[in-house]
Amino acid sequence: MQLVDGRWRISGHDVEALSEQHGTPLYIYDSQVIRRQVNRFQEAFSSFDHRIYYAMKANSNPDLLRLMKELGLGIDAVSIYEIRIALDAGFEARDIIFTPNGVPFDELEQAIELGTRLNIENLSYLDQLGEAYRGDVPCTLRIHPGHVISTANHDTEGWYQRSRFGIDGDQIPEALRLIQMHQIRVEGLHVHSSSMILDEQVFGSAAEVLLNLARQLPDVRAIDLGGGIRPPYREQDDHPDLDLLSRSLTKPLDQFERDTGRKVQLWFEPGRYLVAECGTLLTRVHVLKQVGGRTVAGVDTGFHQLIRPKLYNAWHEIRNISNPEGSQHLIDISGCLCEEDDLARQRSLPEVREGHLLAILNAGAYGYSMASTYNSRPLPTEVVL
Ligand SMILES: *Cc1c(COP(=O)(O)O)cnc(C)c1O
């Protein structure tokens, strides 16, 4: 978003005019930002044979999906419904990886019928898959991050240990027994960190553990390192350097190739990294009031449309579009739901008045896709520039 002649613009579009044309609350996605992020990701890993599967749960807007398709990405899907949306957007089934947890096996059968790839995260699915299809349906195996990822940062290590996703390190012998018994073709090994990558050694150390396991699985031809890379939400945010993450992969991959004569492709499943920064949520201030010595702006969006501040205590930058050069005042921004609904507390913003338009930045990932109709409010409009 740029300030040009006193007016905020997104990719050349006047933000106030967009809000008048489409009404508020309004999600705006800037496709140029997505192209930039896809480019950055591809460039960082360009020295490896790699594929990107966009994790569509971050934002499943059909126009964004078509853009991802145009940019040559595949899809990481977590439900049969996401698979259908991706197929409708033009993806080939074989370019979709399905990673289900806790869903009935019937959902896996539907995905197999459609021809998607399958990422298996527990022994029960592995056994059922083997029983039903023997060697006919290949899969990748999702390994528990606590087994795969080691990091110098003990806090995040606790996070990896607590994850409930993937096959536990202790269960790998049993997984190998099932694979052998049912003659299952395991074509890849997967780990997803669950959105907390801060340490640039994470990919390298994960690849090392997965490649060691791959020595026992001759059909493995891909190592899938999942998602979990976050762009900075504000300048001082700690975020990993993609080039360092990439460099950490060279040694384990070279070693594996030298020892086994086999080559593996790298797969990635970024969600947030590709779409967080493309999105802006526009909302209008309808009520300004004083409560307990604080000034509160009541706006026409809330946690039904952006739950991250409420659920994760996430910080989103907010701009007053209507008064770019006003003097700074501290203000709380409160959503319109009948429930505590703080979008921001004690923010310094150019003076806010009733009728002003506010922009909540970096709302492209896990915004609309986590929206609900709580308070019986309709879902907001989305516009892709
Ligand atoms: C959510 C998810 C991702 C994407 O995570 P981001 O933090 O958005 O990059 C990737 N893979 C799987 C299996 C996921 O569940």
SSE topology sketch:
Elements: E1 2-4, E2 7-10, E3 13-14, H1 15-22, E4 26-29, H2 31-44, E5 50-55, H3 62-70, E6 74-77, H4 80-88, E7 96-98, H5 105-114, E8 117-120, H6 123-133, E9 139-142, H7 145-148, H8 154-162, H9 172-182, E10 186-190, H10 202-214, E11 222-224, H11 242-247, H12 250-260, E12 265-268, H13 272-275, E13 279-291, E14 294-299, H14 308-312, E15 318-320, E16 328-334, E17 342-350, E18 357-360, E19 381-384
Parallel strand pairs: 4-19, 5-6, 5-12, 6-7, 7-8, 8-9, 9-10, 10-11, 11-12, 14-16
Antiparallel strand pairs: 1-2, 2-3, 4-13, 13-14, 13-18, 15-18, 16-17
Helix pairs in contact: 6-9, 10-12
Bound molecules: pyridoxal-5'-phosphate
What is the H level of CATH, i.e. the homologous superfamily of the largest domain? Alanine racemase
The outline comes out as elongated
Strand runs, count: 19
Residue-averaged pLDDT: 94
- Rg is 23 Å
How many structurally independent domains?
Answer: 2
CATH architecture of the largest domain: Alpha-Beta Barrel
By helix and strand content, what is the structural category? alpha/beta
- Number of separate helices: 14
Estimated share of beta-strand residues = 15-25%
Helix coverage percent: 25-40%
Q: Unreliable stretches, pLDDT < 50, 5 or more residues?
A: none
Largest sheet: 8 strands, mixed
CATH domain fold name of the largest domain = TIM Barrel
Q: Roughly how many Å apart are the termini? A: 13 Å
Overall CATH class of the largest domain: Alpha Beta
